[in-house]
Amino acid sequence: MLCPSPMRLVLAFAVPLVVGAGCATPTAVMFTSTGPDWVREGIAKGLPLEDPLQLSEATKAHLRSVASEAGGERTQMKRLVRFFIDSDGLGFQYRPTRTLNAEAAYEAREGDCMSYAMLYVAAARSLGLDVRFVRITQLPVFWEDSGRFFTSSHIAVGFGHDTWAGDAMVVDFSATHTSEWRFSLYEPIDDETAIVLFHSNRAVEFLLKDQYVEAERLLRFLLERAPPTPEVYNNLGIVLMRLHRAEEATALYGQAIERYPRFVPLYTNAVSAAAASGKPELVKLWTIEGRKVAKSDPAFSFAQGMQAFQRGDFASAAERFAQALEVAPTDLTLLAWTARAHLSAGQLDEGLRDVHTIQKQPPSDGQRALLTALKREFPSAAIELPPGSPS
Q1: Surface-to-core class of residue 382, CB atoms within 10 Å of its CB (0-12 exposed, 13-18 middle, 19+ buried)
Q2: What is the pLDDT of residue 19?
């Protein structure tokens, strides 16, 4: 489940892309004096920064009284999900247009994927559960709202230090996932990165309300003081363009592309900035380079393959996954999904060829988990597992 709605995949080099993590939308600000040093510094300067993971003592006490129960950690995780979602509990409602901190999301009983993840992480940790943020990066989603284009990474919650371990779990809004296929789509991010993305969303909220000065002030602070992310560069460039400071935006995108040469939205916006600042040589350069990066990025073909797989067109999914493999031929996730698509389409020889390629990779927990999942799903394929793997 990806946050933005409505959504569609696009790839263009003339339309600005605003980058968010989750769904960018207006939200109330609750200031706190906790969190990373740069958050406290920004609060002292009067910026709309906060630690979005903070919960009040009253909320923590309520959680302990209604959401904790005897049993293992996975039981606790599932109990917390039930409490958040059930009508006789919190009754949390998914709202793709609300990004809230943990306490505000608890009080409002609604929010987007970022809000839910902040609330769940804060609540789980208050119960002594060791959870962390994860996000889907394999599926870039671009969406449109009132003529403006956005891209989003979906934020969820992971449990277990090794996502391939037997007791690992991903909490994705109301659902809990334990399958190897689901794990293969996520990667962990640390708290600070999640907090940066939370505040980058806040800057996008200012941008959408045409409060460009506030958006620039917040994004510049993040750029200078917070852990670096390409989303902050990208969104600050958009703000500068809205303020008719195309040359500054062009220079900023040049720095960003040098630092994050594979982040496709930077090229999209850099071309627009260079055109507005009268730099045709850069327009040509970044258009060519951007198309090369997009073409060589397996994520786009993989995203198309996932769409085909989800609608049951397994042969088309296998073709798209194979295109992604041309760029990253030893990627375990791509190999496993390609094998799964071929086998689901009844293409046994092609599927077993992919399986054999997986088997030749260096031994790892991920390799064993994906081969085990394939063997379980396709018993007639007689897939052999690495030594030491459960049958």
Answers
A1: exposed
A2: 65
